[in-house]
Amino acid sequence: MKAIVIKNYGGPEVLQLTEVPTPSITDHSQVLVKVRATSVNPLDYQVRRGDYASLFDLPIITGHDISGDVIAVGEAVKKWRPGDKVYYSPRFGGSGSYAEYHLTDESSLSRMPDNLSYEEAAAIPLIGGTVWEMLVVRAKLKKGDTILILGGAGGVGTLAIQVAKSLGAFVYTTGQSILHEQLQHLGADVVIDHHRKNYIEEIQAYTKGKGVDVIIDTVGGSTLSDAPLALANYGTIVTLVDIARPQNLIHAWERNATYHFVFTRQSRDELHHITRLIETGQVKPIIDSMYPIEDVINAHQRIEDVKRDRPLLGKIVLSM
Ligand SMILES: NC(=O)c1ccc[n+]([C@@H]2O[C@H](COP(=O)([O-])OP(=O)(O)OC[C@H]3O[C@@H](n4cnc5c(N)ncnc54)[C@H](OP(=O)(O)O)[C@@H]3O)[C@@H](O)[C@H]2O)c1
């Protein structure tokens, strides 16, 4: 089969289209999936450049989202049959999605939403589980809460805005001016241009000094230290971004803040909630751009390039 193989860690050029053996079922609970589409996550380029080198033996196939068709199932698999349409995130540390076929345990599979194409579905699994974990499991977001989503135009942000809105929250987010209308269309009540304005001062002004109940951090930097200044008393900060340097959390005390640190473990139970929101029309995948898998190098360049001519909005999808 065709696959994008990484033989050495490095820049996008290490992503090489290669012919590799097609995997086959060796265990009763396994399922073989024909991959129809995948998408690019920051985790893909972090793996590619060697950030997780201690967890892998080269060569590797990366990629963390799959939509596709079940091709074959092990003897113990009762729930899935050849022809079923599925979507899921491959287990971190195993073989990834940048390949024509993927072998997985049946426990990782979810039924693909009825109303999505393969390309749309591939934009969801990793961010879907992550957003549900952040907003519902950790922040316990409820109707009437105020939330600030930092990085609203990103893969995580575009879905988080929609899910927060569906839960009845008042949504503040950050994004470049040129995207404000699109972010409002997704459900953001207020959009702050992070290139021109200081989000802490803006939130202080909008909330008359009270701050917001929940802050979602998808950008890192000094957010853990600074965000409490935009947080209401007893508010919650949920971060996705690991930063290997000390953070000063003194402002968190003044606010009686609660912090949650999220590293997604692929949970299909959480993805099921997103499937329901998609099928009831409350949430949709936002696709920034689409590339054939052969153009994966350009796709990685687009997500990593901080000086893009057009800002990123949503997910970059790779069709197989
Ligand atoms: N822990 C986990 O389980 C987990 C799961 C998923 C993702 N993540 C992490 O979460 C982060 C976001 O993922 P993603 O898929 O949403 O990334 P993405 O699609 O690349 O989006 C990043 C977004 O953040 C914005 N941004 C960058 N710097 C900013 C700043 N200082 N203030 C406000 N916005 C800023 C960018 O806007 P501009 O275009 O204006 O720069 C862009 O819209 C990544 O670091 C990823 O590794 C972690």
Automatic annotation (TrEMBL):
Residues 10-318 form the Enoyl reductase (ER) domain. Gene3D superfamilies: Medium-chain alcohol dehydrogenases, catalytic domain (3.90.180.10), NAD(P)-binding Rossmann-like Domain (3.40.50.720). Pfam families: ADH_N (PF08240), ADH_zinc_N_2 (PF13602). It is found in: Cytoplasm. The keyword Cytoplasm applies. One of its GO terms (molecular function) is zinc ion binding. Its main location: cytoplasm. Coiled coil: none annotated. GO terms for cellular component: cytoplasm. Keywords: Cytoplasm, NADP, RNA-binding. The keyword Membrane does not apply. Homotetramer. PANTHER family: QUINONE OXIDOREDUCTASE (PTHR44154). This is Zinc-binding dehydrogenase. It comes from Chitinophaga fulva. The lineage of its organism: Bacteria, Pseudomonadati, Bacteroidota, Chitinophagia, Chitinophagales.
